[in-house]
Amino acid sequence: MKQLTEEESRIYITNYDKNADFSSYTTFSISDSVAVIENNRLSGYALTSWDAAFRSAFIQNMQSRGFVLVNRNENPDLGINLSRVYNTYTGVIDYSNYWGYYYDYWDPYYWGYPGYNYYFPPMYGFYEINEGAASADMLDLKNSSSNNQINGIWNALLRGTGVFDSGLISEQVQAVFDQSQYLKRN
Amino acid sequence: MQLHLGISGAKTMGDSKDFLPNGSLRGWNFGLMYGFSDKISAGLMVGFQDFYNKTGREVYNTENGHISAVITHSVQTIPIMIAGRYSFNPEASIRPFAGLGIGGNLVSFGEYLGQFGGSDTKIKLAIRPEAGMAYPFGRFKDNAVWLAASYSYLPYNEFDIKDFSQGAISLGITLPMRR
Fold first, then answer.
1. Is A155 among the domain residues?
2. Residue A42 lies inside a defined structural domain of this protein
3. Closest partner residue to A175 among B54, B62, B68, by Cβ?
């Protein structure tokens, strides 16, 4: 788009489950690497300098909202999966594909829940992606045992020019937390 | 036959002024008119006006959350009309005139959140009354510079936008194509 700076080109999208009581969660854990998803297929996990900065920014913001970071084997209330999503199709791709293959990217086994399914409300499935995006998905692990289902309760999507600039990722993550004031422990 | 060439500044006056609050100096018009008499001429008029507006970054509510974005709108209107002009006093040194054009409006509407979005092009109705003054010059007084004010009624009725109607001031020149 003409006459836009890189900063102006970016959009930050957040969705959340309005039935979720975020103050009911205390601890969280975050994936130790970032899933790299290309054309709806997992191509691997990575921890580049950008990935590390992305992960670090989420930890910092979660802690500033009162949540306590624990290891994933310490029964965290919340799990956060981080992903980089690339699609190289020339056509328009519905973001719902991302959720359709989610089990392949982040096996519930990772969070200590083998055999569980993921459930993301339909609200998550209306984006279109035609280039790279950074995604973070927050999982309700605390209440997952009731029906062998892990519910996604918050999602952030960062898109636009410069999203994958390590020097800019901190302020972008800050932005998605700034627009998610409900996301706090107290 | 007369050739009309002009430049124009315009400002949206319909509901589109909510997201296109700024005027546009990026406009021109072109016409070929046949003089049926010294008072009446008619022919084809084509115009162009380009509007653009960019908001600052804001957080907007969505059905299930929020989106932070800079929103830009880009609109181009191209009315293509059968038009006529009536000169009230063709012998005066400054000649007032009134005109009316009716035809189609080729309109391109673009909306972008950040760099994401798209544009849509439609053909809609265009009606443009105008009034102005012409100052003839040259040996036969058959050249003229003119200044006109116009209102273009440009209904749209797409994407909850009723119209791209606009008021404009045009400055132009009329040149004879043959004597």
1. yes
2. yes
3. B68
Shared domain for A115 and A149, answered yes or no, is no
Using alpha carbons, list the distances in angstroms from residue A170 to A47, A57, A102, A164, B121.
Answer: 16, 5, 25, 11, 39
Please report whether residue A185 resides in a domain. no
Comparing alpha-carbon positions, the chain A residue that sits nearest to B59 is A179
Interface touch A123/B112, C-beta < 8 Å: no
Contact B70 A8 (CB under 8 A): yes
DSSP B106-146: EEEEEEEETTEEEEEEEEEEEEEEEEEEEEEESTTS-EEEE
Per the structure, how many domains does chain A have? 2
Is-contact A85 A98, C-beta < 8 A? yes
Global ipTM:
0.86
Whether residues A3 and B67 touch (CB distance < 8 A) is answered with no
Residue A23 covered by a domain: yes
Q: In whole numbers, what is the pLDDT of chain A averaged over residues?
A: 87
- With both helix axes pointing from N to C terminus, report the angle between A169-178 and A49-64 in degrees, rounded to the nearest 10: 30
Please, what is the average pLDDT of chain B?
Answer: 93
Between chains, do A9 and B115 touch, taking CB under 8 Å as contact? yes
Residue range(s) defining the domain that contains residue A105: 92-124
Identity at A126, one-letter amino acid code: F
Please check the confidence at residue A89 and state whether its pLDDT lies above 70. Answer: no
